[in-house]
Amino acid sequence: MLMNLKDVLAVANEHGFAVPAFNTSSNMILTGVIEACEEKKAPVIIAIHPDELHFVKKSFVKAVIEEAYQAKIPVCIHLDHGASFEQVMEAIQCGFTSVMIDASSRPFEENVAICKKVCEAAHAVNVSVEGELGTIGVADSQGGWTYGAPADQIIYTDPDNAADFIAKTGVDALAIAIGTSHGIYPKDMEPKLRIDLLKKIKEKVKIPLVLHGGSANLDNEMAEAAEYGINKINISSDIKDPFYQKCREVLQDKGIREPNQIYPSCIEVLKEAVYHKIDLFRASDKAKLYR
Ligand SMILES: [Zn+2]
Question: Is the pLDDT confidence value at 116 over 50?
């Protein structure tokens, strides 16, 4: 069933779990994510970044919508890191049920102004909005990210600012910076999550909280984040990496060329990674709470 982010996360917030948001930019990844989430009876957010949307074209969103209608689990289609009002409007026109507007690199008042504008437009057509306060770092350059700060320059989210931001903008969910970075961390860098800060923010903020850069963090920290009030965790590298590692292995066979011969085993390893995240986030068997 197709849902917006507000409705998907309200249940997670009430019952204390996190819904996984998987960056999805191919039919193979979509198949693996939806199949695995259905098997685990977990709600899911299909996240598509503007760069990914540019690559897969708008018709891909129609395929995701079709999958969502047929799925027996809640499915939200979410624009990841919308950078402008125009980008967000385009996503809404495509059929996204949720959008992120990321103006976290701008001064507080500018961030407020654009989020408020996006909320007014999106809410009018029942589309949810995620804002971001504080900056999430970039751990490696593989993702081609054009946003985020170097991982050693993360600006942590201030709890009072967060409450003020939500009151002024009307966002449905807030991405906070508590120490994660996008991508896979270099070997000498150990991610450290500020669970103490998360607890302080959760005391002041009642709407669902979002954690970006959920890949390559310690399993116990992710589980703790879900336990202490994060309701959406973004995963990209941790499903794509095993998928493409397996592709490389399969393609060692120089004679193989049919997609239906190459991809099934790659989809299987991706599904294993999805199962693992669902369990960590306590999202397993939660679809029944939505009926
Ligand atoms: Zn992100």
Answer: yes
